Amino acid sequence: MTSKYDPVLKRIPQRPECPEIVFRQAGDGFLEVVYGNNEASANKTIKDILLRSFRVMVLNQQVRQADIPGLTETVPGAESLTYIYDPLELNTDALIQRVSQLELALESVMDESFDVRVIRMPLAFDHSLIKKSIDKFTSEINPDAVYCKDGSNLDYIARYNGITVEDLKQRFCGTEWIVSMVGFFPGLPFCYPLKPTGALTCPKYNPARTWTPEGAVDLADYCMTIFGVASGGGCQLVGRTIPIFQATPTHSQFAGNPALFRPTDVISFYEETEEAVDHIYELIRQGQWEYQTSIRNFSVREWVEYYDSCANDIRDLQEKQRRAQAELAGLEG
Predict the structure, then answer these.
(1) What does the alpha-carbon distance between residue 259 and residue 168 come to, in Å, rounded to a whole number?
(2) Is residue 211 packed enough to be buried (19+ CB in 10 Å), middle (13-18) or exposed (0-12)?
(3) 3-state class of 32 per DSSP?
């Protein structure tokens, strides 16, 4: 059944190296451009997800450089790009026409490259505040949750991927995570692993938690996020890292923007003790401690070639995951 209120304004058909592009009216002065047909993450590879995300990053940069009159802001998503504009100054059809020109000119992102900011972050696995969040969930919401054994989600995540907890930790810190989008909660980055063997997955809580601490690092469907503020949440909890959001800045890192991350950033974790992470929290609140950042160029083609060279390792991990998930089938929490 079709409706006269169908929000879809235009479609650009799929091309050899570009998914279908769908233009949707998202409200007065909002245009959403979506890449692909919204299939579930579990049905896509990291390569599929990131090639779409790279396209968003490249188009976002091109649109900003085009300086379209009446366009006030762009909001990159993992597989979408939202345009915020003044409809009194910029006609919707005109915006679609200008964006379409840029889209059609970009046949592929394979030859694209861009500078990324690499940020090293300490990570305390199973921090006591993480355990407190899990204990609150099991005592108040779901005491039978199979993913909350002994106040930790790590054992379940490892079992779901057919690996050990120690292997989980090594893989988590052994890959770099590229920030695909920032949002949902204040400053929260959605990140995907650049190393194919870091593509770990797991289902979400059912139902969700009511409290997750600031700095919590979690995982679900290949995606890692970090909580900038305490809030509810549903992904499996891994550990805790340092502040990534300050609404009222006390540290120079947040002077120009309350959120630490932006799309194209790359996060690299290193394991640290709970005491060390908590000490860094206090230093940052006092305006001390220096975030470890560096800049490097990222080539899409070089990353795709690296990904393809890992084909055997990818198959090995996926087979472990399939066997493990079959064994866990039927468990509910």
Answers:
(1) 28
(2) middle
(3) strand
pLDDT tens series, the chain, 333 aa: 456 778 999 999 999 999 999 999 999 999 999 998 766 666 789 999 999 999 999 999 999 999 999 999 999 999 999 999 999 999 999 999 999 999 999 999 999 999 999 999 999 999 999 999 999 999 999 999 999 999 999 999 999 999 999 999 999 999 999 999 999 899 999 999 999 999 999 999 999 999 999 999 999 999 999 999 999 999 999 999 999 999 999 999 999 999 999 999 999 999 999 999 999 999 999 999 999 999 999 999 999 999 999 999 999 999 999 999 999 886 544
One domain, residues 201 and 65: no
State how far the Cα of 229 lies from the Cα of 248, in Å rounded to an integer: 13
Other CB atoms within 10 A of residue 13 CB: 8
How many of the other CB atoms lie within 10 Å of CB of 35?
Answer: 24
Contact 217, 234 (CB under 8 A): no
289: left (phi over 0), alpha (psi -120 to 50) or beta: left
CATH number at residue 152: 2.40.100.10
Count of structural domains, the chain: 2
Buried b (16+ CB within 10 A) or exposed e, 147-167: bbeeebbbbbbbbbbbbebee
Domain identity same for 243 and 103: no
**CATH code of the domain containing 20:** 3.30.1360.40
Q: Which residue has the tokens 């490892």?
A: 158
CA 130, CA 114: separation in Å to the nearest integer?
Answer: 35
Which run of H or of E encompasses 58? helix 46-66
Assess if residue 14 is contained within a domain. Answer: yes
- With respect to residue 290, please indicate whether it lies within any of the assigned structural domains: yes
Strand partners, 25: 31
Range of the domain at 60: 8-109
- Please, what is the Cα angle at 265 between 262 and 266, to 5 degrees? 150
